[in-house]
């Protein structure tokens, strides 16, 4: 292949297979092992995505089967995001104590139990118990995937790989929509059970892949003083030998291990261990940089839900019904289109994040949402006030739903996962958990109030309301969100806490 071979055992003291590097250091070869690790970790996001997608259609049949009210439907659909808060809150500490891999296994186990309970639920109360286990599993999975990926990815492809959880979440949503459509012809009391119960499949795949294939995060290993293991993982997940050694040196510095220390296992300084000091540094005595990071990350997580994407995805059949699609099969088929659009555009974001940058994409994303939400509200207003069918307005509404999910998926959606790179190593897991808790709480509020909000101010007014929040979100991102493309993970913190960051970013040479 025209490259150079290095015997890694001479560098690390461990027997590792030979790695071939390309001749041009400016264009590192794709690290397929790091990509594979990101794919496996991102499978945990399928769990949450599948639940969102499948409940949009399953809730229709559950309501018919159990004869429950709209309020009960809202609670059933939205409560899982509140339960996810429990999982996310526990996952931050669990991942620091037991490791990133163990946390992924916990996610799969909880969702597996939840899927079984929901599939065999004889009544509404039993179904809600299944929602609890599924929600906790979703919280574990959605928290740990971006943390693990940010820590295992090489600098050159960190932005791309960090979007994988969003890709898989959208794949999960699409699979949920397809499941709705596939089982819609079954008897009412069976169809929704198959829709929910089949969720055991991705949870089994996730647990098996994590146990059999992927390694532990090198940064977590360093935090435990396990230098030898961390070195092996870094060599396998870096673009070059030089990068792996530099990442190892940086991590030793961050954790407080002497750079010359080459022991396989060392004692990590006590002040660097996880615990209450993390929360103190996050909330009670944050530095200006940490405060800026926390505000930025939590803000991104907040606006990702507050702009109403959860309502669009969860209640898309009802939105399409308002737009003139009356057939149940046609409504479910239209939701498959929503899933396809979300998946395609997050794939586009994956390509652009390390080329165009984070900041331009997220500003374009929220700006596009503002326009599409306003247009959707206007179209629904015209349909609502017209005494006869307005075909062009119906087409506009359907197009704007697709535009909204497209703009969301190209920036704001994947940026929730990418924002885990903002936090320094010691604060990353629990800092990300704070963001995800915010996201889950807002997701629950949106999911559990959309039908009531639509009755109170009309469905048109609801989307105008979300457009107003999106406008505030655009201003927020413009003011506080820096560009992190091309920076080593340990260098990202340096961008925050400086009021002049906008001007310095324009003049610094971003590494490619």
From TrEMBL:
Gene3D superfamilies: MFS general substrate transporter like domains. GO terms for molecular function: symporter activity. The chain crosses the membrane at residues 32-53, 73-92, 104-126, 132-152, 164-186, 192-214, 293-312, 332-353, 360-383, 389-413, 434-457, 463-481. Signal peptide: none annotated. One of its GO terms (cellular component) is membrane. InterPro entries: MFS_dom, MFS_sugar_transport-like, MFS_trans_sf, Myo-inositol_Transporter, Sugar/inositol_transpt, Sugar_transporter_CS. It holds the Pfam family Sugar_tr. Keywords: Membrane, Sugar transport, Symport, Transmembrane, Transmembrane helix, Transport. It comes from the Eukaryota. PROSITE patterns: MFS (PS50850), SUGAR_TRANSPORT_1 (PS00216), SUGAR_TRANSPORT_2 (PS00217). Residues 37-485 form the Major facilitator superfamily (MFS) profile domain. It is found in: Membrane. It is a multi-pass membrane protein. Its main location: membrane. Belongs to the major facilitator superfamily. Sugar transporter (TC 2.A.1.1) family. PANTHER family: PROTON MYO-INOSITOL COTRANSPORTER (PTHR48020), SUGAR TRANSPORTER (PTHR48020:SF49). NCBIfam families: SP (TIGR00879). This is Polyol transporter 5-like. It comes from Cucurbita maxima (Pumpkin).
């Amino acid at each position: 292949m025209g490259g150079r071979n290095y015997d890694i055992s001479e560098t690390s003291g461990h027997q590792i297979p030979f790695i071939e590097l390309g001749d041009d250091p400016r264009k590192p070869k794709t690290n397929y092992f790091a990509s594979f690790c990101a794919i496996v970790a991102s499978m945990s996001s399928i769990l949450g995505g599948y639940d969102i997608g499948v409940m949009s259609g399953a809730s229709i049949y559950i309501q018919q089967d159990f004869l429950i009210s709209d309020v009960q439907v809202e609670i059933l659909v939205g409560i899982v995001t509140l339960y996810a808060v429990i999982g996310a809150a526990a996952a931050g500490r669990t991942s620091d104590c037991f490791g990133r891999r163990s946390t992924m296994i916990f996610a799969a186990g909880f969702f597996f139990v939840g899927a079984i309970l929901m599939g065999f639920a004889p009544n509404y109360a039993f179904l809600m118990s299944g929602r609890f286990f599924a929600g906790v599993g979703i919280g574990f999975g959605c928290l740990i995937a971006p943390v693990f990926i940010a820590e295992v990815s090489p600098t050159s492809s960190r932005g791309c790989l960090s979007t994988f959880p969003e890709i898989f979440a959208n794949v999960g949503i699409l699979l949920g929509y397809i499941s709705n459509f596939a089982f819609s012809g079954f008897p009412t009391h069976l169809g929704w059970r198959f829709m929910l119960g089949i969720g055991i499949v991705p949870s089994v795949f996730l647990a098996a892949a994590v146990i059999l294939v992927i390694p532990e995060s090198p940064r977590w290993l360093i935090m435990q003083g396990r230098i030898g293991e961390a070195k092996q993982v870094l060599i396998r997940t870096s673009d070059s030998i030089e990068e792996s050694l530099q990442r190892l040196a940086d991590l030793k510095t961050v954790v407080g291990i002497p750079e010359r220390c080459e022991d396989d296992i060392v004692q990590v300084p006590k002040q660097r261990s996880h615990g209450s000091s993390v929360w103190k540094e996050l909330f009670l005595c944050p530095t200006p940089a940490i405060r800026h990071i926390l505000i930025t990350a939590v803000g991104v997580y907040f606006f990702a839900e507050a702009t109403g994407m959860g309502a669009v995805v969860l209640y898309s059949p009802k939105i399409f019904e308002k737009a003139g699609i009356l057939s149940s099969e046609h409504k479910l088929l239209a939701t498959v289109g929503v899933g396809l659009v979300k998946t395609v555009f997050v794939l586009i974001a994956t390509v652009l994040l390390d080329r165009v940058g984070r900041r331009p994409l997220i500003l374009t994303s929220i700006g596009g949402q503002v326009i599409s939400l306003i247009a959707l509200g206007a179209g629904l207003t015209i349909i609502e006030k017209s005494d006869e069918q307005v075909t062009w307005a119906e087409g506009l509404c359907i197009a704007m739903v697709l535009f909204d999910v497209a703009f969301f998926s190209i920036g704001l959606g994947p940026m929730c996962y990418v924002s885990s790179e903002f936090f320094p190593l010691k604060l990353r897991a629990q800092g990300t958990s704070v963001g995800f808790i915010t996201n889950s709480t807002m997701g629950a509020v949106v999911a559990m109030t959309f039908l009531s909000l639509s009755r109170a101010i009309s469905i048109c007014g609801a989307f105008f309301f979300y457009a107003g929040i999106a406008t505030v979100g655009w201003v927020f991102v413009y003011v506080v969100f820096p560009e992190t493309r091309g920076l080593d993970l340990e260098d990202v913190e340096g961008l925050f806490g400086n009021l002049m960051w906008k001007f310095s970013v324009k003049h610094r040479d971003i590494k490619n």
